[in-house]
Amino acid sequence: MVQPDRRGGEPALTRPLVVVSNREPYIHSRSADGSVKWSPTTGGVSVALDALMRERGGVWIAHGAGDADRLAVDDDDRVRVPPDAPAYDLRRIWLTEAEEHHYYEGFANEGLWPLCHVAHVKPVFRTEDWRIYQSVNRRFAHTVHAELPDVSAPIFVQDYHLTLVPGFLRRLRPEARVALFWHIPFPHPDQLRICPYRREILEGLADCDLLAFQLERDRRNFLAAARAELGARGSGSRLEVGGRTMAVCAVPIGVDYDRIQAVTRAPAFEAEQNRLRRELRIDTALVGVGVDRLDYTKGIPERLSALDALFTRWPGLNRQLTFVQIAVPSRSTLDSYAAVEADIDERVAAINAKHARADGVGPIRYRKSALRMRRLTALYRLADFCIVSSLHDGMNLVAKEFVAAREDLGGVLVLSELAGAAQELTEAVIINPYDVEGFADGLQLALDMQHDERERRMRALRRVVAGRDVFRWATEILEQLENLDPRSLPPAPGRLPGRR
Ligand code: F6P
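A: This is the predicted complex of the input protein with 6-O-phosphono-beta-D-fructofuranose.
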């Protein structure tokens, strides 16, 4: 519901938005012939926020990581996107190789990422990474300051890369309205204590007006850490810290459900499925899929162990089932990522050799590249089951995308109890990725499931996914931001001058 605007002007939920994230929604790169091409970023979070920005307009500030990104922007480093149907501005921030190395790979992904995921990879915190993480966060805050159309524009910061942006921004624009969404699990205070810079990070987050998490568990962990480390007070949705009041809530993210329905209803959709079948050389009656970023938190080796157990238990299944694993390379310069990639390569080769059919073809098709939405949706629709086997995951949008793609009510979702999505998607076949035999039982259950039961479960799952789509997620967060208790606001600022 659109709220009347307390400060006058446009209604709160139609006002242009300022989104801030590390990853950009569109990337420009050079083709082999030297021409510049563009493509959307494929991760679930980018796709979800892009849907929101296309609807609302505004500016999205992000790291320009494409090798032709500089060629596409104007003198102010902005480009209108989506390039084929412009709806909002993408403002790119340039990072040097060293900055990317220390801020993104180092502090964010060798420090905070393993700190927040219980996946038994030791977090690494280096002074130099922290120093550059701080300076890059400061740059993001200055760019928001420069790009803010007026102080009433809500600023929506994304994730663990940018924990210090709210604090820096508060100093530059005390009256700015800032929300941050934490997409990944938030660690328990005992785990957070590993991080030497936890206090600064908590202080940065406490400078938000609204801090939102995927799950109640994450919200509770943050509250406990803020109380222990910053002496914050309050237990409900309000927290008093450093003389300010902030709101802390849990709002699970969703997918662009209607867009996925539209893709599945497009005339070329069936042809796309047939094309995929040919390309992936699928000639079996049964198909399973897994779609993940190539990340050690996704439980891909565990999934392969369970599939190995299943093929071992069920002789002849290799003639009936093809499993398609799509893994999108990510953060591959880091040892922990290179190690899981090598492990998966080995396991796929071993399973394909061990369970090869008489014609020498093994049951796993492994592709290390991203699929665009239309192809991805077609792949979901081909599948009799989809595996999401995260060892720990904030939400996991693949689980929700798979359900959104199944208007035909076919397909079974096999879902790790350690993914945030398991809290809502209770009609999935729930597995524990650490329990190989139990996992294989879950796969067997999915394959044996009666038609009626499959439909009943998928119908229930679709109700959940449709009822909590990405627009509802954003609306809930931005409405809460707009409706905060005026006592938590700084004195009436009036409108400040716009862009530089
Ligand atoms: O969902 C968590 C997240 O880290 C997002 O912040 C990010 O956009 C996505 O995963 C992909 O990760 P990366 O941008 O490092 O490839």
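The pocket of 6-O-phosphono-beta-D-fructofuranose is lined by residues 23, 43, 45-46, 159, 183-184, 293, 330-331 (CB under 6 Å). Residues 171 and 415 are 43 Å apart (CA to CA).
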